[in-house]
Amino acid sequence: MRKAITFLGTFNYAETTYFLNQKTCRTNLFPEALNSFFSPEEILVFLTKDAENKYLEILSNRLKGKASLRPISIPDGKNEAEIWGIFEKLTQNVNRGDRIIFDITHAFRSIPFLAIIAVSYLRAAKDMELEALVYGAYDARVDDRSPVFDLTPFVTLLDWTNATDKFVKTDQGSEIAHLLRDAHQVAYKIPESRDGRQPPKELKNIAADIEEISRAMLLARSEEVMNKAWKMSNRPDSCRKEADDWAKPFSLLIDRINEEFSPLSLQDPREDINHRLAIELKIQRRQLEKGQVIQAILLSREWVVTYYTSLMGMNLLSDREKAEGMLNSRAKSMISTESRSEESELIGIWRDLIQLRNDVAHCGMRSNPMQSGKLVTKAEEVVLRLSKIKQLQP
Predict the structure, then answer these.
(1) Cα–Cα dist 350/371, whole Å
(2) Residue numbers of the chain with a pLDDT score lower than 50
């Protein structure tokens, strides 16, 4: 259902001509203008008892025959309990799938803040669709004409912030990629002559890069992570201009994303093995921080193979099977009392990784499975030991 949510207080509201795009409405009560601009199926007006006594009859008469008006009584909001009461009234009167126009023009005290929080909550909890969040700016009037500001983009800023936070904290990039694609599509629905902005060319490509580096991290594809991180770090400045024009919240978050992934950047991981190994250790530490323990274990095993091929002067790809055979042979023949050389430490780690990898691969379905907490601890120990084998600097 398409609903408008609005508020009335007890102030002596002055008459003005509100305007939104090409529409105008002269009134002292913005809910009247709200109906004129959006024509919702139902208007929910939230008001205290005093506001009800002062304005409800007036508003009802003005909207008679024009809109379905439903008054909802709320407390004054003078303490925490009353503020929670207002929030509950807001959320209880929105149903799953409703399309909502929020108006905070005559909202008082903490209600504008509550409206923003309620919008965020309702979109997540009840799949509410926000059509608009508006504010009739009486104080910004010129020649007794007051603009109506659409604050909806500031609500979507929460989406961008949450999506970026999720991307940075978990390497899940699907949500931010979705927002970028939406921004790209919206741009092509706006006539170029309307505001002079050029339609974007790179936003959808940035979305693809974020989605791909996210997927590569989750599937432990270290070369792909390095390639995509390099590509993201070396995009032209025009990308920032596009984001400024069409995805402003993303523009403000670009630097944070670059800070996270530029340390993992390498254009050709197969040519610079020393640099590659250093970055793979960073990826493993990142995976452990994000809870991607299985990925970190698998990549640690491959790191040992790569390091061993480099140590023995072997080919990174064609000699991997041979290197694994040599590591397995050394692991069986080398006794634990041997001198702690670089190679013996590497073999010791290889032994541990065989156990960790088998335990993970069989999902603990073994005669003596490792407890999950110990598995995490052992994985962290392995990555720390790998870091100490040789100090590798990018």
Answers:
(1) 20
(2) 193, 337, 392-394
CB atoms near residue 379 (< 10 Å): 24
Helix (H) or strand (E) holding 252: helix 248-261
Q: How many angstroms from the chain centroid is the CA of residue 103?
A: 26
The domain boundary, picked from 96, 119, 150, lies at: 150
**Whether residues 87 and 167 fall in one domain:** no
Same domain, 8 and 124: yes
| 364: its two tokens | 């603990």
Q: How many domains, in total, are found in the chain? A: 3
Q: Where are the beta strands (DSSP E) in the chain?
A: 2-8, 16-20, 23-27, 42-47, 68-73, 99-103, 129-136, 145-150
Q: Give yes or no for a contact between 46 and 92, defined as CB atoms under 8 angstroms apart.
A: no
User: Which residue among 150, 170, 196 closes a domain?
Assistant: 150
| pLDDT (tens digit per residue) in 186-242 | 888 776 545 677 888 889 999 999 999 999 999 999 999 999 999 988 887 778 888
